[in-house]
Structure prediction request, 370 residues.
Amino acid sequence: GGLDSSTVAGLAAQALGKNRVTAVTMGFDEPGYDETRYAQIAAKHFDLELVKHYISPQEILENIDTIVSGYGEPFGNASALSTYICAKVARKSGIRNLIAGDGGDELFAGNDRYQKQMLFEFYGLLPNFLRKGILEPRLPRSMDSSLPGLFGKMQSYVRQASIPLPARLFTYHLLVRNTPDSVLTAAFLDRIDTEQPFAFLDALYHEPESGDAVDRMMYLDWTLTLADNDLPKVRTACNLAGTNVHFPMLANDVVAAAIDIPSRQKMTLRKLRRFYKETFAEFLPNEIINKTKHGFGVPTGLWISKNRDLREMIYQRLNALKTREIVTESFIDHIVERQKNDYAPYYGGLMWNLFMLERWFEANGLTAEV
Prediction:
């Protein structure tokens, strides 16, 4: 149902013949998470057989151990489970070879953060006397000081715009929004360098010899989002389900073509993936060309609230994690409380990450006393 998955499904049908291609989509009975309507649109447009499956919290409970033991390191991305279940459904339908759409956003400028960061980059184009002599002295820089209304929005903009890339990308990072000692125990902090990840990101951002801010943000995503998260997630999940997976968006000739396209043609402040959408405007259904970007998120935060078995299992593992001298007890209690009473998707996601960390420890024989 997404831009890239629909593209590769349609091109596969064009190349192989529509009777040889089956589309598989996962759905959720939660508003804002279900994209099956768009998958149906794409399948009808390309005359494909569509296998549709709705994932339940019970399926998550039944398949967690396979995912935990299948990855060689703690892997907190909850969509690994939906990817695995998708591949299992495909395998049960007799499908051994899958094609996925990963890579399109990172090659053709499709992530919202690229657009957002370009708005902040405009601030640096203002004359220095206006920024340093007029605006910034009149707007409090302290994060503890917030102005009301329009001035508050201006204050927030200046604060963020004054942070250079790539650091600005991570202003909402857990260890930026919270002090490290409020999240991690003193014993654990003594063993690590909390600045090292940000130094690594900065070096990576500046590694290309040329390229503008959008090019460099995409490069970060090639080496982190894709190589360190999305591709291992999909490959491992599919292998665990007994299927092979291929990534046509990352074929050498596609990557080479994408690199030759200037970023100003790939996106504008008003339109992400401009070049791509214009290229495929006559190929894809209009509803998919113009749809809001969705992603492959899993409603774990909402399910924690609604499903007692899942909630109790996560609470048990979080209590075990408290004994490991890694994450502070107060922070774990804080996110549990906020998940109950505040923004369940966000805090539920943090709970899931910590839960998977503890579950991975246990799966590898590193038990903790509760």
